[in-house]
Specification:
By secondary structure, the chain is mainly alpha-helical. It has three helices and three strands.
């Protein structure tokens, strides 16, 4: 026969399990938000890397009419020169979408920028560099468009022409 003591222990154990479940659910929510913030940082960094690479590709057109790349792989290996140039080291995946593909922003069939096609609401809503001030009004990640801009032309050119021994810094940190 069970004593009243064992019934009380059982109820106490059930309360501890319930409290543990609630705490684990809270930790899971915080963890999910942290993962989303990291993906957001990656999206901003990768998007800016593509914008800088597109700017460099455009500015270093060998002769004649300046042009944007036809495909993203042209940024990795630019064969318009006798010795191929590399405007970006690797093709970064889109960290927000499942398949990692980018929405390409085209002008006359050539890539002027990248964006994501995600309709999720961004967590970050302020504190963007001046070049990306429009991101503060974005309703979705798809509104974060990293495109070539004339006014950024001189800054990007100067930055890419100076020798760098380290990787570029993240302007979003």
């Amino acid at each position: 026969m069970l004593s009243k003591q064992s019934g009380f222990t059982f109820i106490g154990l059930m309360i501890i399990i319930a409290i543990s479940g609630i705490l684990l659910a809270a930790v899971g929510t915080v963890w999910k938000q942290d993962v989303q913030r990291e993906r957001e940082k990656d999206l901003l960094y990768y998007g800016d890397a593509y914008r800088r690479a597109i700017t460099q590709y455009y500015d270093q057109t060998p002769s004649g009419l300046k042009q944007f790349p036809k495909k993203l792989t042209d940024l990795v290996s630019d064969h318009r020169f006798p010795r191929p140039r590399h405007h970006i080291r690797v093709l970064y995946p889109n960290p927000i979408t499942e398949d990692g593909s980018w929405q390409l922003i085209r002008v006359a069939g050539r890539i002027k920028g990248v964006s994501t096609n995600s309709d999720k609401t961004p967590i970050k809503v302020s504190g963007f560099p001046a070049l990306y001030a429009a991101f503060e009004q974005a309703q979705t990640y798809a509104d974060w468009q990293c495109v070539y801009q004339e006014e950024s032309n001189n800054q990007a050119t100067n930055a890419t022409q100076s020798p760098q021994t380290s990787s570029p810094t993240n302007p979003f940190q």
